[in-house]
Amino acid sequence: MSYLVDKLPYDPQNPEAIYSYAKKLEGSKFRDACSWVISEESTGYGGNKGHLGQYLEKNYFLYELNSDQNPDFKEAGVELKVTPLKKLKNGHLGSKERIVLNIINYMEVVKEDWNTSSFLHKNSLLLLIFYLFESDKDRLDYLIKFVTLWEYCSVDLEIIRQDWERIVAKIRDGHAHELSEGDSLYLGACTKGITSASSLRDQPHSTIKAKQRAFCLKQKYVNYIISSTIAAEMPTKGIQNTLDVEPFIKDISELKGARSFEEIILDRLSIYSGQTVDEIHELVGGELNNDAKGYYASLALRMLGLKKSKIEEFEKGNVDVKIIRLNQNATPKESMSFPYFKYKEIVEEKWDNSTLLNTIDKKFFFVIYQEDEFGILWFKKGMFWTIPSDDLKKVERVWKETVSRIISGRAADLPRISDSEVCHVRPHARNKEDTCETPDGQQLIKKSFWLNAKYLNEQVANYN
DNA sequence: GCATGATCATGC
DNA sequence: GCATGATCATGC
Fold this sequence. Notes:
Elements: H1 15-23, H2 30-35, H3 52-59, E1 79-87, E2 93-95, E3 99-103, H4 106-109, H5 118-123, E4 125-132, E5 143-151, H6 154-172, E6 187-191, E7 201-203, E8 206-210, E9 213-217, H7 219-233, H8 261-270, H9 277-285, H10 295-303, H11 312-316, E10 320-326, E11 336-337, H12 343-346, H13 355-360, E12 364-371, E13 377-385, H14 389-407, E14 423-427, E15 435-437, E16 443-445, E17 447-451, H15 453-461
This protein binds a DNA duplex (12 and 12 nucleotides) through strand 10, strand 11 and strand 14.
């Protein structure tokens, strides 16, 4: 790397020294943090999206940008990421987005192995600079809230290794065009750059072109970084508290060997397969209230050996737990609902960034119970599920049709279950009076997208 | 039996 | 008070 001054105000070979220097940014606006270093006209700030990182590199850390295989601070092995926070509904601060790491070179990554991977080389030690995003402000007026030097704990790094292996295996199998963030737990493969045909990339072992993707830390994982490191350091600064979670993996040794995190979960559950809910309750239910709505979800957590209400790995990996009840013919009784949408908001969205895409294109954990001919309920299995990319395209069609009908004043007549084999739209409200306004000013009952019961049936039946 | 509409119960 | 996950109810 080349420096912009003769003598840097920090030692670029020492991670702790870089961290200490970066730490002084806390509480400053970007503009103020750098004004004493370099004159206004040479700030290199063009007002473009995503350039705040480059701005700090040039004007605060005083070195020239590079985008090679090496970490930003090459000698220290430190990669710099400048990343936004947003105010959550509960008033706390959380991550605004995932952290995007290096771009996946499909042709090259398949030749790598984990220990010598370009990913690990570049992203083992992250200098994270969190600032508060505020849509109404000039970017240089954003406030830098806090800085941390992030290194993965051993269990997380092992899960990230498994994620990496799974992503690379899919590319080796010629399925780079079917990658999804839901394939993996903490480390995702997110789309990067424009998604038009011109940005499609070649992949090995298939002639189908694939969207450009990058490794990323999922948004939920970034929230975990925030709550675990920074809340402890600065409990009074409005950072969300540590979640009420419990890790499923208690010790790294459980993850060694050939089994993945998912396989370990499924194995643990499999010993209860075929037992009735009452029998399982005897074994692990304790004081659980079997009238409660969340009873079947709670029971599943007990089968997994957990006492608290949330699995830490699921929280960090954005895994959504859903209960599916089958009738005696092993068919799901009900379609599966997602949160309702607001008519006036959904029409402003683009599919690639839509709430529905974020809600559905992720990893699910289905806990499946089945009824017998006497109406007795028994536990069948657990199952991880991510929507296949072809089916996601069908969801996209339904979503676009929904938006176009709302725009043209037909919000009362949205896609029905017979219009798509994957999903449909129907009411999702507390009662008839629970309405929301359409763009043309009507009050209509709240509605949401649902996965068709029949479609769920196929997905559950085809799963091994 | 299924599509569709409607609402319950919990928890934040 | 409301969002959310889950399930009930009706009628074709």
